[in-house]
Amino acid sequence: MEKLLPLTGFNLQLTTAEERPHQISLFIHTHRQTAQLLELAAHLARRGPLLVLDGGNCFNTYRVAATLYRLAPYAEVQANLEHIRAARAFTCFQMAALIHQALPPPCISPSQVTEGERAISLSQTMGVPVLVLEFLTTFQDENIPLRERQRLLSSCLNDLPQLAQAAPVLVTVRQSGTQPIPPEMLARLEATAGEVWTAEPPLPAPVQPPLFAE
Amino acid sequence: MGRTLPSITMAFLQEQESFGDFRRALRRGDQLALDDLFASARQHLAAAAYAAHPLPFEVFLLAMLLEEHKKVQYLQQVIASLKRDD
User: Is residue A35 within 8 angstroms of chain B, CB to CB?
Assistant: First the structure.
């Protein structure tokens, strides 16, 4: 099992949620790390509610359930699974709408509520970590005009920092060899993110030198 | 819009594949018995899909057990009929 640094970073961000404002964590990965992200979702579901916005149709709940069965006592698995709210976006329009819907309602913004209400909202509504899986995948759809995709991306990039103020946010982007991510979109996302993690390519298999040189 | 979950057949094939190393280490006769078990679970894929259990392998195990129990019941009937004939 490879060590996944964002797991550490994101967990650290969760544990220090009260001490410092949240920032967006961006994880650029390949297909190999998708399974580990699902395991991360299972770990987070053990801790409490979790919102998953899936842009790449990669959230395999069988995998998450199998991990939870490994982590949790049998009787708790169902309750832990119910912590997860998952929504899938198949177009960039849907992704923009999902992120906008995930924003905390204005009535519970910290400036407008009392201290007591704020404590309740932070614990019940605003502290729910958000996983945005394969965020840019839907923005690679060439059937949608580039200008429209860029407008929607701008909308998402405006909403994500607001979301991050209310809850820890991990955005993932999957690098694909067949359909590379447009560099300008990735650059804009990286500029918005507070920290960027990139999965290292796998090490080449070790080659044992021959005992006797020919 | 694509599938949001692997179909039950895909899940079954993935589970079967995950036991590939185990199967390879078995004796030939045991390999055939294991194949037989998976074949018996395969007969109940429709029911497994309907169950929509978060851990499909549990349903596959129950399907294997079901087929084994049907065989036990059949053999009990055969033995009972043989005893009656005697």
Answer: no
CB-based contacts of A58: which residues, under 8 Å, 6+ apart? A34, A37, A38, A133, A134, A174
Size of chain A in residues: 214
| Residue pointed to by tokens 């899936």 | A54
* pLDDT tens by residue, A13-66: 554 444 445 688 999 988 888 888 999 999 999 999 999 999 989 998 899 999
Among A155, A121, A153, A131, smallest CA distance to A6 is for A131
Question: Which residues of A are less than 8 Å from B55 in CB distance?
Answer: 62, 65-66, 69
Distance CA A191, CA A196 (A): 9
Helix (H, G, I), strand (E, B) or coil at B77: helix
pLDDT in tens, A174-199: 988 777 888 899 999 999 998 898 88
Residue A119 has pLDDT above 90, yes or no: no
Mutate one of A62, A68, A82 to test the B interface: name it (highest B CB count within 10 A). Answer: A62
When CB atoms are compared, the residue of A62, A66, A78 closest to B5 is: A62
- Using CA atoms, how far residue B11 sits from A40, A65, B18, B47, B57, in Å, is 21, 13, 11, 14, 8
* ipTM at complex level: 0.71
pTM: predicted TM-score of the whole model, two decimal places: 0.75
| ∠ Cα A38 A43 A46 (to 5°) | 130
